[in-house]
Structures are given as C-alpha cells and as structure tokens.
Design a protein that fits this description.
By secondary structure, the protein is mostly helical. It has nine helices and three strands. It has a three-stranded antiparallel sheet with strand order 1-3-2. Strand 2 (70-71) and strand 3 (80-81) form a beta hairpin.
Length: 226
C-alpha cells in the first residue's frame, strides 16, 4: 500500500483571496515546513490549498519579489525554490534577528500579563512534548508560536514586521540545525530561561536568553554552510 504524504499546507476555503494563499505559504515557511533547496510547485501548492493556480502564482511571485524565494522554471509547474543561503548571508540575517528580537522581548516583558505568560508556557510545554515524541513539524510550529507569542506582545508593529521578514529568509536554513533524533534539544535551555525571566519581569534577562538562542543557532548552522 502506498504511503500518503502529508500535505505541506492546510487547505483553505475556495472563495478566499490571493492574500490568504500568501499567508498560508508564509506561515509554512516561518514554521520551517520547507527545506532549503526544496522546489515549490504551483500545481501541488494549489491542490494542497484547494484553490486555483492564479492566487497561488500571485503569492509565490510576491515572495520572490521579497527575496524570500528564488524563481523556479517557467510555466505552471515552474513555481519557486527555497534558497539555500551561504554562511555569510545567513549570518547577516541572524545578526538582524539578534538586534531586533531582544528589543521586542524587552517591550513584551514590560507589557505581559498572566494570560500572556500562560499562553507562552503552553507553547513551551508543547515544544518539550514534541521534542520527546520526535515530532519535528509540530515542534517547529510550537517553536514559531513561542517566539512570535513574545514578539507580538511588544506592540511594536514595524519591528515585528522586520523580524518576520528575517525569519522568512532564514527560517528554512535553520532546519539544518535540527538533528533528526532530538530537534531543538540544545537550545531548549534558552527558551526556558527566556520564559523564566519574563515571568519575573526581568526584561534584560529575557532579552539575553533570546539573544543567546539566536547566536547558538547562528554558530551551528554556519558550520554547515559554505
């Protein structure tokens, strides 16, 4: 019996606009659903989402224009390719992250309430659970929700947009730092430290934990790149 391959993207309603397709693809990239060098075929993406090619093509073209994806071939099957960054390119993006994300973390710590902390705690618990179960895709989703759960609390929309842009461009390459047997184990301590500091209202401590998390990933991934 043939094994059914899990779709990369969740289906969306047929009457949604092209920006919904853009959001679905962007979310998948942010959560690490696509690997560096992987080809995004328009027809496959349209089938996954349950929509026509036109909004899919528009969404892909927008991400190409934003330098998130590289253009593939021509025609309906051309689509795009998830770029594999060089060590220098990746390092620059991580430098942007290590500058902006601590700023957002400081602001978030000062504004977070008990419900916000509870939501972040739930995301972290899910990360631990998925690590133990070896569920890479689910771990990546929870990892994204944990980080952006912090940054959204900062109420700094321009900085949040810039952070998201950096994540979009370096997110797939970050997958190279995830060992198949235990994804994210090495950097779990930084996530725990960030949440602990946030609970105490220690803005600088939370920011430093996030900065250390980013720097650890930068070092590990750069060793794997040319």
């Amino acid at each position: 019996m043939a094994t059914k391959i899990k779709a990369k993207l969740k289906s969306i309603d047929r009457d949604t606009l092209w920006d919904r397709a853009y959001h679905a693809l962007k979310t998948a990239l942010l959560a690490g659903r696509f690997a560096p060098g992987e080809r995004i075929v328009l027809r496959t993406m349209a089938n996954d989402l349950g929509i026509s090619l036109t909004p899919v093509r528009d969404a892909v073209n927008r991400l190409i224009a934003e330098n998130v994806l590289d253009r593939g071939g021509v025609g309906q099957g051309g689509g795009a390719i998830v770029p594999l960054l060089t060590a220098k390119q990746f390092s620059q993006l991580m430098m942007i992250r290590s500058s902006l994300e601590p700023i957002a973390t400081i602001a978030a710590t000062e504004l977070a309430n008990k419900n916000d902390v509870l939501a972040l705690t739930n995301s972290l618990e899910k990360m631990k659970q998925y690590i133990a179960q070896g569920k890479v895709d689910d771990y990546l989703d929870a990892h994204y929700q944990f980080h952006f759960g912090i940054y959204r609390l900062a109420n700094l929309p321009i900085i949040l947009q810039m952070i998201e842009s950096a994540w979009l461009r370096c997110g797939p390459t970050l997958m190279l730092a995830l060992p198949d047997y235990a994804p994210g184990t090495k950097r779990q301590k930084f996530h725990i430290a960030a949440l602990s500091a946030l609970k105490k209202g220690d803005a600088e401590g939370a920011a430093e934990a996030i900065r250390a998390d980013i720097e650890s990933a930068r070092i590990d991934v750069c060793k794997l790149l040319n």
